[in-house]
# Entry
Amino acid sequence: MDEEKKESGGFEGFMKKTSSRKDFLKMGGKGVAGTVFAASLLSFLASPAKASGEETKRVWATASGAIIHDPSRCSACKRCETTCTMANDGKAHPYIARVKIGRNLNYGNKGPSAAFWTGEGQFGNFRIAGETCRQCKSPYCGNACPVGAIDVDESTGARVVDVEKCIGCGTCQRACPWGMATLDPEYKKATKCVLCYGDPQCVRGCPNGALSFVPWEEAIRKYQAHWETHV
# Structure
């Protein structure tokens, strides 16, 4: 009985009710457009993983560490953003910096609000809410990339972008809840923190010691404490 219900329900039941392949193609449209639609849908249905409802999940090696930002030490000089892009990209370009200070400078990471003076940032309590890559245990950016262009650096475990594979679609940028991956508007390639292969230049360049490179487990504890307190 259960098997009969299973067969009669869902998309499989719909497919059985379709009288012929010709009828099915008509539902996708006429001519070439309908054929393309039907072919792509049939290809989807032919995938064993999709048909069975199974998801293939990658197991990622944990990063050795992560960079954390201390708002109590930050003076918003943004030297870290310049140092980051000079070291990684050969140009001063704060927008693609792997540490984000400028975008939260005025209103904090929550953005403008009617009661902006009660929030973070220069227009609020003067607390600078800098953001850095969490090097997530199961990275949203890496799992979302349609071409597998984000991999793990063998020396640090950092999630890094393979620019040869990257197609510049921006999926990783949209997938990250914190918007840490960024698409370089000049080269149309994604960028994200690679921990400078064990020697983060933003940490070296900060004059106030507001950035530190700590073991991954410690970084996660501090992030959790931060969000429980300030979000």
